[in-house]
């Protein structure tokens, strides 16, 4: 249980450290830097979806033989529809977008920016929670090192996310402390979601392959719907795709080396 507590807090620490950049940097992040950080986060999330979630989901379904892919496919689509539903129910505003998504609201622009990041942190919290729930239940397809690799990988991609939300808040006229708090709050859903998932371990384990792949589908939705458009917006640049490749290979290496 101690390992699980540490594991679910590591990604939140990553977000908080990234948000703390608001105290060290005077100006908003350069556009190319933001592209690079967003691309890196995208690569980490896609690699984590494959090696830390989908592959273990199919390994857990091995008794199904050649149909071991069925829970992974079903769970993946559930994750897509879950995020699609949240996208429609929660008012939020993506970076570099002038028009808010979700139902009409009178929320401030800065609040909706934080909500947008919080939305895509939900599947990351679910992913960590599901993996540690499986680990605590003694599932053979999940190792302590593999769970730690996922936590570290998500923490790595949360570092730039924390900065990407706190720095624009500061540039929009929000004070340093409030901008930092906004960055931190955008990541608080991760440990909360992970803790709730672990608390429901008895219910999680029987459908573990579905939940692992659900988290993967939700993370892939976030990457395709939000992060890739953000890293590609504006004038043409190879920064996004190169940083995507870096994040992908780093997370892949981390997962394989520690598993």
TrEMBL record:
The chain crosses the membrane at residues 6-25, 37-55, 67-86, 180-204, 210-228, 240-258. The keyword Transmembrane applies. Coiled coil: none annotated. It is a multi-pass membrane protein. It comes from the Bacteria. Keywords: Cell membrane, Membrane, Transmembrane, Transmembrane helix, Zinc. InterPro entries: ZIP. The keyword Transmembrane applies. It is found in: Cell membrane. PANTHER family: ZINC TRANSPORTER ZIP11, ZINC/IRON TRANSPORTER. Belongs to the ZIP transporter (TC 2.A.5) family. This is ZIP family metal transporter.
